[in-house]
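[stage:ingest] chain + small molecule (phenylalanine)
[stage:ingest] validated
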Amino acid sequence: MRKFFLAFTVVMVALLGFATIKIGVVLPMTGGIAAFGQMSWEGVKIAHEFKPTVLGQPVELVLLDNRSDKVEAANAVSRAIDYEKVVAILGEVASSHSLAGGAVAESKGIPMVSSASTNPLVTQGKKYVNRVCFTDPYQGAAMAEFAYKQLGVRTVAVFTDIEQDYSVGLSAFFRAMFKKLGGKTFNEFYRTGDQDFTAQLTDVLNKKPDAIYITGYYPEIALMSRQARDLGYDGYILAGDGADAPETVKIGGKAVEGLYFTTHFHVRSAVTELGKKFVERYREVYGKDPSALAALGFDAYMVIVNAIERAKSTDPDKIAAEIRNTKNYEGATGVITIDKNGNALKSVVIDTIKNGKFEYVTSLVPSL
Ligand code: PHE
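[stage:predict] done
[stage:export] tokens:
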């Protein structure tokens, strides 16, 4: 009998040891916006360290690189679900990627939590796709109000990256609010990967706007800022969360001094206990301050794992339902409640760049 129990225990330990709960993490680890993927992954790893098990089993993270590409964004989600058999997906970052990947997760019935995709369409009409960040109508309105009321800006040249759903949406939402406030906007367009913006900038500078607002990602924001300053532009430069990477400063240098951008988190905006612990541990491990993306990656992991815990099961439908039952989770980026449409409502952080560093300016809730 004793032998039997011993054998039984050994077999159970072996079985449990092998049984891990897999979460697919789909991020742009290489390619145009690799900085976003790298920072998100750092935050996810800290969260995993804080909470490495659920339902008595180890959580295994399966990292898949979407190479900053829309087609890969969908392929990676398919691979995670079909081959890796993940119970949930954490990702993606760029809205176009989450739209592509989210369509796959939705059709296969696997829950997904985007850490940072802000375009409204990412979750719209979907049962399985969620996010732990605010959306762009909100982010655009916040910048419109800040620019109009705090900076006294009245005319803005809005630069849209027509290849990014994020940029197209954010520009539109900003314009709507800025016009409502009584301001005036001009439109200019570019594409991801463009290097030369002198034609659009020359056109815009003749109109002498108080500010230019660039709604794309850091590679183009940084380059465009440099070219604008080289052309003699001395007004405000404004951007969205797409500017939130150290690369903005590395590439932009002096040209991005004084730039204002909306984002999700700054170490100075960390208010919860867990947020403070996260900042402390992150600094210990990486020797630098966590970015918004790291904090959002951390929160996305916690929201998924807490949902699995409440579901008491790895059944995707039960996890999906529990993700939408997330209420008042005190995360790194603030207090998160996921509404019935899969969205989180949080305040917007405004940062500026001073002496090559991101400085916290204020947190605000736009009136919309
Ligand atoms: N909000 C961006 C998008 O939807 C992604 C992003 C979030 C980038 C936060 C930087 C910081 O595409």
